[in-house]
Design a protein that fits this description.
alpha/beta; Phosphoribosyl-aminoimidazole Synthetase, Chain A, domain 2; seven-stranded mixed sheet; 10 helices
Length: 289
């Protein structure tokens, strides 16, 4: 179950992004969404019901794209608009992705760029161009189905979606589950082309700053990485990509499958290793291929 407050102005676009965000929880486990229930908090004195209808329409279309039927739900009066889905899916127990399935030596592969949280904040402040706004909406609306299919085809065993806790927050949780440590090569991490400039201008959501404070006790950052670079790695994503742990021997297979599936990124950003569970080392260099 996942629901969010609006991150864009268009009702249909908001509904689609919220639905894609919720569907990602099933994809991150290697599953296929089957049915979903709508969850909506609606301030009817502030927003016309026609807007609610458009939000539902956008969410339903995105769920249909995933082959998932919306079969009901619940709407309540709420002073703040919220919309999302409770998604039920199906997974093959022999071919599933978990937080406990990673192994030392696995490579970490990210399937969408970072910076959605910063971009959403910029949209709220009218600080993002129309073309960049359209690119962000398209990226957040993109389903993670192709990334999931690629992970399973390549024999991956562990995955997480990258959403509200940011890249490092979700990686930390995966590491705790697998009782491993990780090394992240910051230069390999894909980032929206305009996100750095926005962050340097001070445009970043409070959630991203809290995420950075959360992971700092578990992370050793290269001294060459400034505050902006660190914040990007903790940026609170909405409907981000999958972070996949794949055996090194299957790395090229996974990258080929991701490129065939047309994912927004297919970047090898780090590796897993023995060490204190949940510990992360972030280096500024690209690392050995």
């Amino acid at each position: 179950m996942d629901f969010i407050t609006p991150v864009v102005d268009g009702p249909e676009e908001y509904g689609a992004i919220a639905a894609a965000n919720a569907l990602s929880d099933v994809y991150a486990m290697g599953g296929e969404p089957q049915v979903a229930l709508v969850i909506c908090g609606f301030p009817e004195e502030k927003v016309p019901r026609s807007v609610l209808e458009r939000i539902f329409r956008g969410g339903e279309a995105k769920a249909a794209e995933a082959g998932c039927a919306i079969v009901g739900g619940h709407t309540v009066l709420d002073p703040e608009l919220k919309y999302g889905l409770c998604v039920l899916g199906r997974v093959d127990p022999a071919r599933r992705l978990t937080h406990t399935g990673a192994r030392p030596g696995d490579r970490l592969v990210l399937t969408k760029p970072l910076g959605f949280g910063i971009a959403a904040q910029a949209i709220k402040q009218a600080a993002l161009s129309p073309s960049d706004t359209a690119a962000v909406i398209a990226a957040m609306s993109a389903l993670n189905k192709a990334a999931k299919d690629a992970a399973l085809a390549a024999g991956a065993r562990a995955s997480t979606d990258v959403t509200g806790f940011g890249l490092l927050g979700h990686l930390h949780h995966l590491l705790l589950g697998s009782k491993l440590a990780a090394r992240v090569w910051s230069e390999r991490v894909p980032v929206l082309p305009f996100a750095r400039g926005l962050a340097r201008a001070g445009i970043a959501p409070g959630g991203s700053k809290r995420n950075l404070a959360y992971v700092e006790p578990h992370t050793v950052f290269d001294a060459a990485l400034d505050g902006t670079e660190r914040l990007l790695l903790a940026d609170a994503q909405t409907s981000g990509g999958l972070l996949i742990a794949v055996p090194r021997k299957s790395e090229s297979h996974l990258l080929a499958e991701l490129q065939r599936g047309g994912t927004l990124a297919s970047s090898v950003i780090g590796e897993l290793m023995e060490g204190a569970a949940g510990h992360m080392q972030v280096t500024a260099h690209r690392g050995e291929v």
